Amino acid sequence: MTWRGSTTVSDRIFACLPYLLPLIEGLTFGGYLFREFPILGLLLIPLSPVLLIYRTIPFATLIIFLALFFLVVRNEKISHFIRFNTMQAILLDIVIFLCSILLEILSPVPGAGFAIETLANTIFLGIVVAVVYSVAQSLFGRYAEIPAISDAVYMQVR
Asked: Which residues span the membrane (predicted)?
């Protein structure tokens, strides 16, 4: 959907960058898959510099989260396309946070190891698919429509 006007190449690139936040946060759920299939670790090589910076700065998640929200989403001077994708990445990150709380609640339950592993793998794959889809749509200059999340984004970004 491109009803807000055409997008420039720079808008498309900047719209993709916020999706690094949920991708990096979602990597914690992929631990089981990375242990089972070590070859998947090769996919993380391009993310190495970002991961290094992300892991060395204290409270990096919170700083990036707040900076994206207040400096990008709430700034009406920035194009709607970039603000939409930034807010969608923020909401994906919130979903990841809620899923991590769910796994923390389930972890003390005896015998729930297999269920936790399956749930973590599903969350990881879901986040990766959502990020890849959103980045691809952004590169094409289209709004990525993720059910429920995009509706919430449209309510936040005008």
From this structure: 12-32, 52-73, 85-106, 112-136
